[in-house]
Amino acid sequence: MSTSRGLRLAGGTALAAAGALLALGWARKNLVVVTVQGTSMLPTLQDGDRVLVRRRPLAQVRQGDVVVLEPPLDGPYLPGPAGPDGRIWNVKRAAALPGDTLPPGIPNGDIRRGGGTVPPGALAVLGDNPDSIDSRHRGLFSGDRLLGVVVRRLSVTQRPSQRPEAWQMATRSRDV
């Protein structure tokens, strides 16, 4: 191998390695894997599903995006147990963004809830499951507590129909 060809090959390898390191650094800064806990996003996401989240500010969220954010820490519905990072995360769907009219079922009438429209720096979120504890119960969520937007599901938890023992437990009589 000639010296100039060897130098080109070494330079190309170094450039590829530098590019890979830059990509890895970007991914570590901008992407997070979150495990869904609970049933608030059924049927879209199930307890145990893992999702890839891209960190985004509120200004880059669109109505209908599935988002991960910290819940309000006040009010009658206290959040569940903390995750491995010590923080409590909710996975919900962005229903209304700053300036949007509040969707039906989300209370309004006080300053925190915007009096009919979502104020700057806040968003209304809903779970896909109608029994979800979301903005209908907790009011608006702060955009400052937004982790990001779900990009894709990475793994799917087996549904009860795929796990015979779970199906049997789900259909077993509840008489005591």
UniProtKB/TrEMBL annotation:
Q: Where in the cell is it found?
A: Cell membrane
Q: Which CDD domains match?
A: Peptidase_S24_S26
In terms of SUPFAM superfamilies, this protein maps to:
LexA/Signal peptidase
Kindly state which keywords UniProt assigns to this record, in alphabetical order: Hydrolase, Protease
Q: What is this protein called?
A: Peptidase S26 domain-containing protein
Catalytic residues per the record?
A: 40, 92
What is stated as this protein's family in its record?
Belongs to the peptidase S26 family.
Keyword check for Transcription regulation, yes or no: no
Species name: Actinomadura bangladeshensis
Question: What topology does it adopt in the membrane?
Answer: Single-pass type II membrane protein
Which terms in the Gene Ontology molecular function aspect does this entry carry?
A: serine-type endopeptidase activity
Residue span(s) of domain Peptidase S26: 31-101, 113-151
The reply to whether Iron figures as a keyword in the UniProt entry is no
Q: Which GO terms describe its biological process?
A: signal peptide processing
One GO cellular component term, please give it: plasma membrane
